[in-house]
Design brief:
Layout (H helix, E strand, L loop, with lengths): L5 H9 L13 E5 L2 E4 L4 E4 L12 H13 L9 H12 L7 E5 L2 H16 L3 E5 L8 H4 L15 E4 L13 H21 L4 E7 L14 H11 L3 E5 L14 H4 L6 E4 L10 E5 L1 H10 L10 H16 L2 H22 L3 E7 L2 E6 L10 H13 L2 E2 L1 E3 L5 E4 L7 H16 L2
Helix pairs in contact: 2-10, 3-10, 6-7, 11-13
Bound molecules: 4'-deoxy-4'-aminopyridoxal-5'-phosphate.
The site of 4'-deoxy-4'-aminopyridoxal-5'-phosphate has 15 residues, from helix 4.
Length: 426
């Protein structure tokens, strides 16, 4: 009798368009640390997933989740020690005046709430984003998205600005010149929003520009951009959904790497190591003003189980010194990737820091033509060799390397040696 495959069953009940990695998709049955086990028993090294930031199925996280789920799980309209203690700990990790936490379940909800807050406190409606962004799946974020297809038209109350990248700049361009040019684009966006009667409420950016493929942004750009937006009556929303939780190795938050203190921070993905825990951090004054005008409640956001999990994630990052690990293993990984670039013409650029790298593949280094087909081949061949990464960028030619933070030097060796072999035999 005909038995449909799991893929065919998925198509039937989830549709053909639900995103799926690889020409031949993988079915996983177990995770542990940086390893994922497929149904045939084969283990794959995870060099891609940032959500399980302290490792897949971390025993401390699983135990905290089990313990709290067995004791009490309830919403935030009752007092609960765990929930308040988590909010205290999370807000203490941010600079002043970021001292209040609003719980959500997803990064999309966090960014949606951040936009509402920004519009409320500024009284403005305009939004500025990057010209290759993704911040979530709500309607207002879909109307801002430029990195993924959306059925909604780009919002008339928004402007998308290009983000400077020293790798893409014409040879000989100084960082300062590039910064000035792109700051002029931002100023034009601010002016045009004002001219049409919808002045800027917020600049919403990922502080490392992760979906934009980690461009080499001149050091002063983000701080200057924030200044301009504030001078025009808007605020800076820092999306830390990918950049946060020690990813850079140097800091806990991506905004610290950019030398700014945002007005609103949004958190997600690694915050719950896979449990749906996300949130918005901003000043108590704004949270109270907004709350007075708009009742904000999120049934599942900030449950005691979410708080217990979030606490265990922070414990693991601290106890296992994962920020230092991201820095040290990240440096090693970067050195090895740079050495690889010396031997493979296909690698046009290696950029990033900590445990987050973009390796841009180009057909020739002078003209920087995207090697999109090659990137697809590399990702699929690495999969065949037991290694998981992905690709990003408008031309899908940039390898995205972003493993769980428990990635060790031996894992970096296994990954780079395998990538070397794949590139040699392409
Ligand atoms: N912000 C950024 C920068 C993201 O990359 C994503 C998800 N890819 C989101 C927000 C949305 O998060 P979620 O999928 O949890 O809604």
């Amino acid at each position: 009798m005909y038995e449909p495959t799991l893929l065919q069953r998925r198509y039937r009940v989830m549709g053909n368009e639900a995103p799926l990695f690889y020409d031949q998709p993988l079915t996983f049955v177990k995770g542990e640390g940086v390893w994922l086990t497929a149904e045939d028993g084969r283990r794959y090294l995870d060099v891609y997933n940032n959500v399980p930031c302290v490792g897949h199925c971390h025993p401390g996280i699983v135990a905290a989740m089990q313990r709290q789920a067995a004791q009490l799980n309830i919403h935030t309209r009752y007092l609960n020690e765990q929930v308040v203690a988590y909010a205290e700990r999370m807000t203490a990790l941010h600079d002043d005046p970021l001292d209040c936490l609003m719980f959500t379940c997803t990064g999309s909800e966090a960014n949606e709430l951040a936009l509402r807050l920004a519009r409320f406190v500024t009284g403005n409606t305009g939004v500025i984003v990057s010209d290759y962004n993704y911040h979530g799946n709500t309607r207002s974020l879909a109307e801002l998205a430029t990195a993924m297809a959306t059925s909604e038209a780009f919002s008339a109350q928004a402007r998308a600005v290009p983000i400077p990248c020293l790798y893409r700049a014409p040879a000989g361009t100084l960082a300062q010149q590039l910064e000035d040019q792109y700051i002029a684009h931002l100023q034009a966006a601010i002016d045009s929003l004002k001219a049409q009667g919808t002045p800027v409420a917020a600049l919403l950016i990922d502080t490392l520009f992760a979906n934009e493929s980690l461009p080499r942004v001149p050091a002063g750009f983000v701080a200057r951009a924030a200044e301009l937006v504030r001078a025009a009556g808007g605020v800076l929303i820092a999306d830390e959904v990918q950049s946060g939780f020690a990813r850079t190795g140097e800091h806990l938050w991506g905004y610290q790497a950019q030398g700014v203190v945002p007005d609103i921070v949004t958190l997600g993905k690694p915050m719950g190591n896979g449990f749906p825990l996300a949130g918005v951090v901003t000043s108590r004054e704004w949270v109270e003003r907004f709350g007075h005008a708009s009742m904000y409640f999120n049934t599942f956001g900030g449950s005691p189980v979410a708080a217990a999990v979030g606490m265990a994630v922070l414990d693991a990052i601290e106890d296992e010194q994962l920020q230092a690990n991201a820095l040290n293993v990240g440096r090693y990984l970067q050195e090895r990737l740079l050495a690889l670039a010396e031997r493979h013409e296909l690698i046009g650029d290696v950029r990033g820091k900590g445990l987050f790298y973009a390796v841009e593949l180009v057909q020739d280094r002078q003209r920087q033509v995207a090697a999109s087909a090659e990137a697809r081949q590399v990702v699929n061949r690495l999969r065949d060799q037991g290694i998981l990464i992905s690709k990003i960028g408008p031309h899908d030619n940039i390898l995205k390397i972003r493993p769980p933070l428990v990635f060790a030097q031996a894992h970096a060796d296994l990954f780079v040696d395998t990538l070397d072999r794949v590139l040699t035999t392409l």
